[in-house]
């Protein structure tokens, strides 16, 4: 796990290093802040103190959250205003810790930061996997998928795509196999999860391949994602 710290105060830096060492983690203490591009791309937990940036503290952290959504960002500083705290939290900063640090409180918070960072990495890996599954579909398979999501029957899909019902059934079975599905309800859950993750992560910076993200249809959400829309079979081989 890659942890990076920007803090101009030696005492605070020493405390973070001690905590990282207690949890068998290596903390990378970086030189003066040099913008988002100065952060190693492998960073998973980023801790930035106000002393390392100065007046542009809020702006720089918000920019970091936008451009590096795969990183868990922690902000620290003295006398942070309520407005600053609200803006930073809304902008994606995970935790804000005020100085002066109380060793006991920081010791208790550190494992929570590490756990949250690992959970974020797990979500990122899930996002990549789901995106790759959908990216593996051919154009024809995507057309069938769109019809499935719209609640169109195999017969009507065949008419719409000007192919035989058997061809639709074959393509649909391939879609289910590629997306590792057994029924439509599972498809809806995966689509919903992918859309939620897509809202968190910047696909352009996270994904190694381009993906096709069909639009989720409200009829599935209205049904609580527990049942398919009318006219849609449950069986993957249908």
Key descriptive features of the protein:
238 residues; 5-stranded parallel β-sheet; single chain
Brief characterization of the structure:
With 238 residues, the protein is α/β, with parallel strands linked by helices. The protein is built from ten helices and five strands.
Overall helicity? 40-55%
Approximately what portion of the residues adopt beta-strand conformation?
5-15%
Number of β-strand runs: 5
Ends: how far apart? 45 Å
Indicate the overall shape.
elongated
Would you list the SSEs in sequence order as H and E? Answer: EHEEHEHEHHHHHHH
Order of strands across the widest beta sheet? 2-1-3-4-5
Residue ranges: pLDDT <50 for 5 or more in a row? 209-238
Number of helices: 10
* Main beta sheet: 5 strands, parallel
Question: Could you tell me the mean pLDDT?
Answer: 84
Gyration radius, rounded:
23 Å
Give the helix/strand class: alpha/beta
Secondary structure topology:
Blueprint: E1 3-6, H1 10-22, E2 27-29, E3 45-49, H2 57-67, E4 72-78, H3 82-90, E5 95-99, H4 103-135, H5 139-149, H6 154-161, H7 165-178, H8 184-200, H9 203-206, H10 218-222
Helix pairs in contact: 4-8, 5-7, 6-7
